[in-house]
Amino acid sequence: MDTLAKLAILGEAAKYDVCASSATSGSGAGGAGRGRIGNLSPAGCCHSFLPDGRCISLFKVLLTNECVNDCFYCPNRSSRDVPRTSFQPEELAGLFLEFYKRNYVEGLFLSSGVAKNTAATMEDLLKTTEILRERYRFGGYIHLKILPGSGEDYIQRAAELADRLSINLEAPSAGRLKNLSRRKDFEKDLLERMRWVSKVQAGRREGKVRLSAGQTTQFIVGAAGENDAEILGAVSRLYREVSLKRAYFSAFQPIAGTPLENGPVVPILREHRLYQSEFLMRTYGFAYEEIPFGRDGNLPMEIDPKAAAALRRPEAFPVEVNKASLGQLLRVPGIGPLSARRILSLRRTYRIRDLEELKNLGVVTGRAAPFLLLDGRSKKPETAPKQLGLFDLSVLDGEVPADGGLPW
Amino acid sequence: MAAFPGKNASTILTSVLAAETGRHSGWLEDPRARRRFLGVLEYALRAGAPGASYVIAQVIRQALREGLPYVYAKTSPEARQVYQWARAVSRELSRLKGLIRLEPYSGKGRPILIGKAPMRYNLVDLVLAHFARRFPGHRIILDTGRGIYEWNYGVRLVKEEFWEEIGKESRGRNAEQCAGDYYATLWEAYYESQIIKGRLDISRAMRVLPKRYWNWIREGRKLRSFSP
Ligand code: SF4
Predict the structure, then answer these.
(1) Upstream peptide bond of A318 is cis (omega within 30 degrees of 0)
(2) Count of domains in chain A?
(3) What is the ipTM of this complex?
């Protein structure tokens, strides 16, 4: 099979994997720069957009779509009758570098099915990455998938080569994972590996470990019968226990020829509400307990979670803009971390008196006004409160810098 | 009056200036704050709007009198205007970094990477510097349609003979039309493979990537096929 045909198959097989951002906080061991091709960037950079508006930042591809496993939702499961193919490590590394040189992508996101066994496939994944780092002296961004059940030495080596590692949990608990896979052991194959990544990451300063963008995970939403509270509960534990950098969510889409082919199509809005809530926990400092789940453990669909959380606590509002703490400001719908910091900074020398001033600070005043007092008075917004757009958070999340990364 | 300890004339100068100009000009003595502020003004200037230097001078006065947060809060119309310019320039730079395609050539000397893009703002130096950092050991050329530039410890104008050197046919060619480039075909196939039919939302795509950029990129043809 030629490269073109392989690419069509192995690109397609990776399209449900989510990897929004290539932003990193550091240069990593082994260093970007220093005469290497490619470098890291503190802000994400989109190199193209798909017809649904998703940003293409990374070359997201599988090394092989052969797989010995049988995950019920997966297009690559062993029993499914689809054309199978693999890249050779040399071939894939060379292809990526040519894409990178043409500025098609910001980095590589390399994943794989489990071809013969986990060890052999991990070796090929590592070999591809080694060729890039060592032969081609590539210093840019690489996100490497760790296969379930990978050995500790593979994880160590992967952390020396990649900027980000991820192990897909897919489901929030062992019980739920049973609805998705017969072979994967939640505790042993997945969680334990995440702990290993976390351990390797903790020793980052001392040794050769790169891992400048930490570890992430992904959940298939709605395939295992779980609710949102279970998913976000797992995410919140993972932040604490394995220093998870962030979680990705992929709304389940049934695939023909799999045991879940007749499963329900999960609305993208559910995936989006999960992103919004995860964002509140990770960036706004919300505790898991503050996330406004309904009785069924799911997030409300008709209103965004921040507004829903605020409406549930009428006693906490309105807050006085000129006195409120950072935490209080961050709980006001329409005020984000950047605008909250701007308010605090301006307040030191200036008394904020009207909504126009808040708007200039980046506050969405139509949403915020009902929750605020300005100089002791409540002000009516000129425009009616607006529901947060379906994808507004992606703009805040380094995926698409709204202003190209301007600092204010 | 306080003494002005300083290691050199420049720090003494900024200390004196800070003390003389207003209650809130302390930021002058903070190199990071100063750099950041100047960076924003620098971006705003690159928008090339008529009268920009006058507006920027006003904003500097406000920053010295009222402090930086006053300016960052865009409390005055001048600060708002400067912010708008800087933001537009910053966005455009981000797009240029992501969407300019590079066409590789291997000639006699260093390998060459050629990018072609019209410039709405004066960003040639920043774009060239970005790619030069990313591709050390390469000769980076940028053709804006109005001039050809390269990065050689700074921006240099490239003579017309350059095209003789690498083959004239590449001159008027949009990097995305380079039919002979097998990797462009591979890229297009890859792009197609990422489309999820159940998620199509072309109006969102048009919001995040305005149509005027579509012919910069080969996959713009595909986007066009979905657009109304
Ligand atoms: S391990 Fe499961 S999810 Fe991964 S490729 Fe194989 S079948 Fe698919």
Answers:
(1) yes
(2) 2
(3) 0.87
